[in-house]
Design a protein that fits this description.
Elements: E1 12-18, E2 21-26, E3 36-45, H1 48-56, E4 58-59, E5 62-63, E6 68-69, E7 73-80, E8 93-96, E9 99-100, E10 120-121, E11 138-142, E12 146-148, H2 155-158, H3 161-172, E13 181-185, H4 189-200, E14 205-210, H5 213-221, E15 226-229, H6 233-239, E16 241-246, H7 251-260, E17 261-269, H8 282-287, E18 291-294, H9 301-310, E19 320-325, H10 329-336, E20 344-348
Parallel strand pairs: 13-14, 13-16, 14-15, 16-17, 17-18, 19-20
Antiparallel strand pairs: 1-2, 1-6, 3-7, 3-11, 3-20, 4-5, 7-8, 8-12, 9-10
């Protein structure tokens, strides 16, 4: 057990400097603020946004202007509790809710803080100075971000809590799922987790779609009843799904989602498409009276996910396909970007 003390530095951290420039840097650990705890990170999942910052120097319209620590899908243990007494005590295993909602000039529903215009997120270049992420051996985090985990919940499995919360929020946007036919377009980590959430929610039939076989195998392992190749337009249209979750983040996927929905059905768009106009058959959405629903991040669903993982009703382990020690972070990112061969790739910070 570590003693309760401010550590001299954060140790190795995964830092994006520019497009194609990813490094392991030693990042100093500042003295924590009164409301911050020091977290000893155990695992971190590589997200699509992390890959975009590495490959393109940007994630959507969030452009790197300075080096930034990546990572927001992390779990670990409280090394030093917040000095103000808020949040969990030292020794508690925790997951992290990486959002900091904040108001801004634009209006938004107060009960949906994920839509707050001033919201920041760990490992995001949406604003400058950037919000550093948590791919570091030790990190200071506001106590309000921390969720205590049941001792019996394996931290490796718990590393999926953040993306599973994104999936849970997307499914909740569609309303009651019980007994319905569901179609999931794009079976990468988010799509596969959507499948797992749909299964738990009582979907009668779940059809997973992807370009590659590996993601489809994972989707079947977590609860999909059928797997369809993305190029099989006839098979997709024949599903006539009550609910479609589009998680590919491509206009081709959104077109398939619209074509695969039953008349009067719902299409939830959780895959983030590039900014700007997109060529999709929107006329079909009009004439079939489809409901197109956006889905962005999550709110308190993280607490539901933790409970469901703890009681075993949400099965997600097959989504994790690779673990790499922090020292091999570059190799891990290379594998994570190959969606034909990998699902969720984890960085193991223990012993770094």
């Amino acid at each position: 057990m570590h003693t309760n003390q401010v550590l001299p530095d954060a140790g190795p951290a995964v830092v994006a400097h520019a497009a194609g420039d990813l490094r392991l840097d030693t990042v100093p650990l500042a003295p924590p603020a009164a409301n911050e705890a020091i977290i000893e990170v155990a695992y971190g999942g590589i997200c699509g946004s992390d890959l975009h910052y590495w490959q393109h120097g940007a994630a959507g319209e969030s452009v790197l202007q300075a080096p930034m620590v990546l990572g927001h899908e992390i779990v670990g243990t409280v090394l030093q509790a917040a000095a103000d007494g808020s949040g969990p005590q030292a020794g508690n295993p925790v997951a992290v809710h990486p959002a900091s909602p904040a108001p801004g000039a634009a209006r938004y529903p107060e009960d949906r803080p994920n839509l707050s215009p001033g919201c920041t997120y760990l490992g995001s270049a949406a604003r400058f100075p950037h919000t550093d992420g948590a791919f570091s051996r030790y990190v200071n985090l506001p106590a309000r971000m921390l969720r205590v985990l049941p001792q019996a919940l394996d931290l490796r499995t718990a590393a999926l809590i953040e993306p599973a919360s994104v999936a849970w929020h997307a499914v909740s946007r569609a309303g009651d799922i019980a007994g319905k036919t569901c179609l999931v377009i794009g079976s990468g980590p988010i799509g596969a987790l959507v499948v797992a959430v749909l299964k738990r929610a009582g979907a009668a039939r779940i059809v997973a779609v992807d370009v590659y076989s590996k993601p489809l195998d994972i989707a079947l392992a977590v609860g999909a009843h059928e797997a369809v190749q993305a190029f099989d337009e006839e098979a997709i249209a024949a599903v006539e799904a009550d609910v479609v979750i589009e998680s590919s983040g491509s206009h081709h996927g959104l077109a398939s989602a619209i074509k695969g929905a039953v008349r009067g059905g719902k299409v939830v768009m959780v895959g983030l498409l590039p900014s700007g106009p997109q060529p999709v058959p929107i006329s079909l959405a009009i004439t079939r009276e489809l409901e197109l629903l956006g889905s962005f991040r999550f709110n308190d669903e993280i607490d539901d996910v933790i409970d469901a993982l703890a009681d075993g009703s949400l099965q997600v382990d097959p989504v994790i396909t690779h673990d790499y020690p922090l020292a091999r972070a570059i190799d891990a990112f290379e594998v994570a970007r190959n969606s034909a061969e990998s699902g969720k790739v984890l960085l193991d910070f223990r012993g770094a």
